[in-house]
Design brief:
Bound molecules: iron/sulfur cluster
Distance between the termini: 22 Å
Strand content: 15-25%
Order of helices and strands: EEEHEEHEHHHEHEHEEHHHEE
Strand order of the largest sheet: 6-7-8-3-9-10-12-11
Radius of gyration: 21 Å
Largest sheet: 8 strands, mixed
Shape: globular
Structural class: alpha/beta
CATH topology: Rossmann fold
Number of helices: 10
CATH architecture: 3-Layer(aba) Sandwich
CATH class: Alpha Beta
Number of strands: 12
């Protein structure tokens, strides 16, 4: 998937693979935090800072990184819950970033979001049937005659009993509520679902059930997911490709098996060194990152990771590393892999 990531990079041709459903190119989302004396914005939080990736139809892109790295803001900006500062978000050939609210409303059913907290994302005043059916009616997904059968069918797909139709969210456990959230999303027949930490509020056994449900629905309906999580084991299990974000920028991106077998970026190495391995004889080599994550309002110059990187060189402090494709489909933003500095670390 060489072309999968850096649209517009000279010399990179798109191999004919699965259809690219979403193309995010150089996406930026800055929030103004300080204004000058005449009201102009003088400082910004760079929550998402030049992020590019593609999502193929029926595939999952996992996005990982520490809290505050911009994963959730990136997901919300793709969905246009936040406006786009710059860059392109092309969904099915349409530029979401430049769409007017009326046009966006028409597209909304095709891109859905599942939130982290199934407790607060469901209205306590609506029954399960109403929650799942509210937007179905609004967007006229099915005719009035078929409405109830359709909702029962969706509930069945998500492992919800038909008798839950008249019940209220407070009567359910966390896992069941997340199933209701998933049912509400898929009822609109989306092509892409942005899953923002969908299992992190759930018990481990329930997490597995929800992940399996998401995979089943993907196989059956050809859904694509952007799966945002800080749980690397879950991301490895569900994702086809993985992007690693730090301070609003993509540090590494590639096929899941490549990234987990041989992480290249020092940040990815540190992040993945904390993943437990189910082998009692395996000796873990945990890399402890020093210092705190810097403020996105005042990110470090050059490589944003240089203040915490054990392999930092002089060049890292002043020059921003390019996001380059080192191996087919494997992209890294790090000077260690730049021949120009004579320190190529590829092995
Ligand atoms: Fe570390 Fe330099 Fe690579 Fe940044 S560019 S990750 S500071 S080696």
């Amino acid at each position: 998937m060489s072309e999968n990531l850096k649209p517009g990079v000279a010399g990179q041709q798109a191999p004919q693979e699965d259809k690219i459903l979403l193309k995010v190119s150089h996406l930026k989302k800055y929030f103004p935090v300080r204004t000058g004396i005449i009201g102009q914005h003088v400082q910004y939080v760079r929550a998402v800072d030049d992020v590019s990736f593609n999502v193929r139809a029926g595939h999952t892109v996992g996005i990982v990184g520490e809290s505050g790295c911009g994963k959730t803001t990136m997901g919300r900006t793709v969905l246009r819950l936040h406006s786009v500062t710059s860059g392109d978000v092309i969904f099915n050939g349409m530029d979401l970033g430049k769409m007017k609210p009326r046009e966006l409303r028409k597209i909304r059913p095709q891109i859905q979001m599942i939130f982290q907290d199934p407790y607060s994302s469901l209205s306590p005043r609506l029954t399960v049937g109403e929650i799942i059916g509210e937007a179905v009616r609004q967007h006229k997904i099915v005719s009035k005659e078929n409405y109830k059968d359709y909702i029962f069918e969706i509930m069945k797909k998500c492992g919800l009993q038909p008798q839950y139709f008249e019940r209220y969210p407070h009567e359910f456990s966390g896992g069941q509520r997340q199933r209701i959230c998933i049912a509400r999303s898929i009822a609109l027949q989306p092509k892409l679902i942005i899953c923002d930490e969908p299992v992190s509020a759930l018990d481990v056994s329930i997490q597995a059930q929800i992940i399996n449900l998401l995979k089943e629905l993907q196989t059956r309906d050809g859904l694509a997911y952007i799966f945002i999580s800080h749980d690397l084991s879950v991301v490895e299990h569900i994702s086809d490709e993985v992007g690693v974000m730090y301070l609003g920028s993509m540090m590494e991106y590639g096929r899941t098996e490549d990234i987990f077998a041989r992480p290249l970026h020092p940040y990815t190495e540190a992040l993945f060194s904390a993943v437990p391995v189910p082998d009692p004889d395996y000796k873990m080599h945990r890399i402890i990152l020093k210092g705190d994550i810097p403020s996105p309002a005042n990110p470090p110059s050059g490589c944003k990771f240089h203040t915490r990187c054990e392999k930092c060189m002089d060049i890292c402090k002043c020059e921003k590393p390019q996001f380059r494709e080192l191996e087919p489909g494997h992209f890294v933003a790090c000077h260690l892999y730049n021949d120009k500095y004579g320190v190529n670390q590829r092995h």
